[in-house]
Write a structure and sequence with these properties.
The complex is a heterodimer of chains A (353) and B (297). Chain A is mainly alpha-helical and 353 residues long. Chain A has 14 helices and four strands. Chain A is globular and about 55 Å long. The termini of chain A are close together. Chain B is built from eleven helices and two strands. Chain B has a two-stranded antiparallel sheet with strand order 1-2. In chain B, helix 3 packs antiparallel against helix 4. Classes of the chains: A mainly alpha (353), B mainly alpha (297). Chain A binds chain B through residues 72, 76, 78, 124, 127-128, 130-132, 134-136, 138-140, 142-143, 146-147, 150, 263, 267, 270-271, 274, 304, 306-307, 309-311, 313-314, 317-318, 321, and chain B through 43, 90, 93-94, 97, 99, 101-103, 105-107, 109-111, 113-114, 116-118, 120-121, 227, 231, 234-235, 238, 269, 272-273, 276, 279-280, 283-284, 287. Chain A: It is a multi-pass membrane protein. Chain A: It comes from Tistlia consotensis USBA 355. Chain A: One of its GO terms (molecular function) is branched-chain amino acid transmembrane transporter activity. Chain A: This is Amino acid/amide ABC transporter membrane protein 2, HAAT family.
């Protein structure tokens, strides 16, 4: 009997603990899609736009948080300036839409610009680790925000208003960015796509190198992997996720402003990731939804919502290092693991003649 | 020739003096930050907010009629409980955990949000400006300089010398440096490490509070005032070398002069990118900073 290839071959991951957790995350994303479809149906039946637009905004910020999680959860690098790529995506998308009202062209231009920016930013930021990485990303975003704030061609402090409503051609269908339920679904689809691509890439050997980097960078280098290249790839991937999420922002709100690049946006994304669950990919998405709900609920009582969010955030750092999803996902993973034999037994079964 | 002289006298010189006053302000904020960073290895994201706390305490006590000169001593003392509590209740909890750099950074970031909101609940979001304790201006070589700015420069020099004396010339400072160099060894030689950590954190906040009192009459008081200083203060800490007192002084004064001259020669818009450029170059070519780490040099 010819020997079977090892099951850890790329594309056929062993059902070990990591893949089981990933599968639990996938399940939670499916849940999100179902909830999103239900919300869109309910909203369009009731003729609501406010809550649908709020949900869309939550999904857009979920993309930004996802991008922070790719860096923090997989490489252990905390970015305090991920709003930089979010803002670049938003501004380029707005500029493109005002010149040529084409949805796909806007996304393409936004990702192209983000890619270039991420290559430059990555070369600078990846020279350092730890707190220095956090500070340098913080500084990068701060500086670009200042430049945008002072550039008259980009609307300076006012930003740019009047981004037109465009049609989103999806094969045989057409959705307008002006239609609240339609655009919610577009944002949901993009988010799920970004999640799926990130989850796929991070579950490949490349992703395992990143996880190893977080655990012990020196050893990874000794094992013959280029740590710089892996970190750079993660950085660019994260930036693209942020940029593409940002590209949807002007389509939703019809304007862009320098505030999109400010530390508040980056900081919010970090809070979202920590509250939702670092390194889970799905945690930031649920975190963004939770924070949006919290903000609008608390916001109806008091304007000082940040105090509640700050306390929640600090409590998560102190008592729930895995975030809210960390409470849920291990249980889900265990339940999924019961469905098939544990990896040790599977390997044993294979080893038998 | 006469043009050049009057340019130097009336344009450049005031800008340099203003830059020097701002530089002292930045050094005061950065000193606390760098000491905390150097010893505890903690990036205190809430440092700017504690600076704001100092300014607000001074404002409130000023309303009660306390004099500015008393506040100069009182406010730093009032910052001690904040420092000890923050270190004992928050930072110590995560200090020995994994990723403590990131965790302590996140924790102090959360704290900064809460402090900012609390300040705006208690004092309202509006800008307030305490009266300048020293009014008037003096003429120096034909140029009028506000007395308070000159006073700020003078007191900055005094504070810097005092801090350097404490850190480098006293037994207390030796304990701090020993703990920064090797915590366990210092502990086994009888340094009360736990106390040194709380004390150092509190000392950092005392300096932030003092900066708050001193700068309130110039830069006004508002809940988000801490944000304005934080990028430049971090840059100073990185360029100067984390934990290095002289590094913070040299980098603080040099960078604010660069800022002041860039604002004059190029445009105020470009001061931040230039400062940041210096930080990037420093991280690329001399990541340990100009003067190296506290306790290591």
């Amino acid at each position: 009997m010819p020997e079977r290839p090892a099951r850890s071959f790329p594309g056929r991951p062993v059902a070990d603990r990591l893949s089981l957790s990933m599968r639990a995350s996938h399940l939670l994303v499916v849940l999100l899609v179902v909830a999103g479809l239900a919300l869109a149906a309910l909203g369009s039946a009731l003729g609501d736009t406010f809550y649908l637009r709020l949900a869309t905004e939550a999904l857009i910020y979920a993309g930004l948080a996802l991008s922070v999680d790719i860096l923090l959860g997989y490489t252990g690098l905390l970015s305090l300036g991920q709003a930089l790529y979010f803002g670049i995506g938003a501004y380029v998308s707005a500029l493109t839409l005002m010149a040529v009202p084409s949805f796909w062209l806007a996304l393409l231009a936004a990702s192209g610009a983000t890619l270039v920016a991420a290559l430059i930013g990555g070369v600078i930021a990846n020279r350092v680790r730890g707190v220095y990485f956090a500070l340098i990303t913080f500084g990068l975003a701060q500086v670009v925000a200042k430049v945008v704030y002072n550039t008259r061609e980009l609307g300076a402090s006012d930003g740019m208003i009047g981004v037109p409503v465009v049609e989103v051609p999806l094969g045989p269908f057409h959705v307008s960015t002006g239609s609240a339920p339609g655009f919610l679904l577009v944002a949901l689809a993009l988010l799920v796509l970004l999640y799926a691509v990130s989850a796929y890439l991070l579950d490949t050997p490349f992703g395992r190198v990143l996880i190893a980097l977080k655990a012990n960078e020196r050893r990874v280098a000794f094992l013959g992997y280029s740590t710089w290249r892996a970190r750079m790839a993660a950085y660019v991937l994260a930036a693209l996720v942020a940029g593409l999420s940002g590209a949807l922002y002007p389509m939703l709100r019809g304007f862009v402003s320098p505030e999109l690049l400010y530390f508040q946006v980056s900081g919010n994304a970090v809070i979202t990731v920590v509250v939702g669950g670092v390194g889970t990919l799905v945690g930031p998405i649920y975190g963004a939804i939770l924070l949006t709900v919290l903000k609008s609920v608390i916001g109806s009582w008091t304007e000082h919502q940040l105090i509640v969010i700050g306390v929640l955030f600090m409590a998560s750092v102190l008592f729930l290092p895995q975030g809210l999803i960390g409470l849920l996902r291990p249980r889900l993973a265990r339940w999924l693991g019961r469905a098939e034999p544990p990896p040790a037994k599977a390997a044993e079964a294979e080893a038998r003649p | 020739m006469a043009d050049l002289v009057s340019y130097l006298q009336f344009v450049l010189a005031p800008q340099v003096v203003n830059g020097l006053a701002l530089g002292m302000a930045v050094v005061l904020v950065a000193l606390g930050l760098t000491i905390i960073f150097g010893l505890l290895d903690v990036i205190n994201m809430s440092h700017g907010e504690f600076y704001a706390v100092g300014a607000f305490i001074a404002l409130a006590l000023g309303w009660l009629g306390l004099s500015f000169w008393l506040l100069l001593f009182l406010v730093p003392l009032l910052m001690i409980p904040f420092g000890v509590l923050t270190e004992r209740l928050l930072i110590r909890r995560v200090y020995d955990g994994p990723d403590r750099h990131v965790t302590t950074l996140l924790l102090t970031f959360g704290l900064s949000l809460i402090i900012e909101e609390l300040l705006s609940i208690v004092f309202g979001p509006n800008t307030q400006r305490p009266a300048t304790p020293l009014r008037g201006a003096v003429e120096l070589a034909g140029v009028y300089m506000p007395v308070y700015r000159l006073f700020l420069i003078g007191i900055g020099v005094v504070v810097i010398l005092a801090v350097a004396w404490i850190v480098y010339r006293t037994r207390l400072g030796a304990m701090v440096r020993a703990a920064a160099y090797d915590r366990d060894m210092a502990g086994s030689l009888g340094v009360p490490v736990s106390l040194v950590y709380s004390g150092t954190f509190a000392f950092g906040l005392m300096l932030a509070g003092l900066a708050g009192v001193l700068l309130a009459p110039i830069y006004s008081v508002f809940p988000t005032m801490g944000r304005d200083f934080i990028l430049i203060a971090f840059t100073v800490v990185i360029v100067g070398g984390m934990g290095s007192i002289w590094g913070a002084v040299v980098a603080g004064l040099a960078l604010t002069q660069v800022q002041a001259l860039a604002a004059l020669v190029i445009s105020p818009v470009w001061t931040d990118p230039i400062v940041f450029g210096v930080m990037v170059l420093c991280l690329m070519f001399r990541p340990q900073g100009l003067f190296g780490r506290l306790g290591h040099a």
